[in-house]
Design a protein that fits this description.
The protein is α/β, with parallel strands linked by helices and about 250 residues long. The chain folds into three domains: about 80 residues, Substrate Binding Domain Of Dnak, Chain:A, Domain 2 (Up-down Bundle); about 120 residues, HUPs (Rossmann fold), CATH 3.40.50.620; about 30 residues. It is about 55% helix and about 15% strand. The chain contains ten helices and seven strands. The strands form two sheets. It has a five-stranded parallel sheet, with helices on both faces. A two-stranded antiparallel sheet has the order 1-2. Helix 4 links the parallel strand 3 and strand 4. The relative contact order is 0.11. The N terminus is likely disordered.
């Protein structure tokens, strides 16, 4: 699956929005400005055509710039009262899709989950606190929470990433973020019906969906498998022993 899927979908919505403006607008300039306004509109349409062209090439950043220029020109004409748009054209609000997890040692399974969530809307990732992982799993995560958060923020498709709350109230963060959708991973240990019930009891109208597909394109697509691989490899055990020896003999 293309890692650009979320950009493709966002551009498609952006294109639809601009197309509706182009279709519904009517010129309102005085006669002396009509030719200039038509020239500006032609320029906006060229930017729109360029945006489509670069999107087909997969150059999404350039496509975004072009369609934004197009929208900007049209907005200026509208603000100056030189065009009128029949009916109100409103950009469709993207859904807020919440994904939560430890994200300890990042692997392709994490990327797959986030990319699938991005197909539904803007992804907000909640990274579990160290204390929460200790309480639920009986061990601390390998990577501290601040570092895990920093890495997650850099993953393509993540709109926002925050640390979860400490304590046993798992739904407090949902009340704070107010997502439209919660996407569960295929292996996350949550009862979907119970989660829906508890959300409703708090007055939260949130759609709960579970990703059915388990990403297994590679051998080490889970943190547990990566840790087991490290522990089983003799060469890595020797490396750890050498590092420990160097540490104990350093001045």
């Amino acid at each position: 699956m293309s890692p650009w899927r979320s950009d493709e979908e966002r551009l498609s919505r952006y294109f639809d929005y601009v197309e509706r403006i182009l279709e519904k607008m009517r010129l309102k300039p005085p006669r002396r400005l009509r030719c200039r306004v038509k020239a500006i509109i032609d320029n906006a349409k060229r930017y729109y055509e360029d945006a489509r062209y670069y999107a087909r090439l997969g150059d999404y950043p350039t496509s975004y710039v072009c369609v934004a220029y197009c929208e900007g020109l049209l907005d200026c004409l509208k603000y100056l009262g030189l065009i009128e748009v029949e009916g109100e054209v409103v950009a469709e609000r993207r859904k807020r899709v919440m994904v939560a997890g430890v994200f300890d040692i990042i692997h392709p399974g994490h990327i797959f989950l986030i990319s699938k969530a991005a197909e539904l809307g803007d992804v907000i990732v909640v990274v579990a606190r160290d204390s929460t992982v200790q309480r639920l799993k009986g061990r601390r995560p390998v990577v501290p929470e601040g570092q895990r958060l920093e890495v997650v923020k850099s993953i393509k498709g993540v709109k926002e990433a925050v640390l979860g709350n400490e304590g046993e109230d798992m739904l407090k963060i949902v009340e704070e973020l107010r997502p439209d959708v919660i996407m569960l991973g295929p292996n996350q240990n949550f009862d979907e019906e119970r989660l829906r019930r508890e959300l409703e009891e708090r007055g939260l109208k949130v759609e709960v969906v579970r990703l059915k597909e388990l990403y297994e394109a590679h051998k080490l697509c889970s943190t547990t498998k990566i840790i087991k691989e490290i522990l089983m490899r003799e060469d890595l055990q020797k490396l750890v022993a050498e590092l420990n020896w160097q540490g104990s003999h350093s001045s």
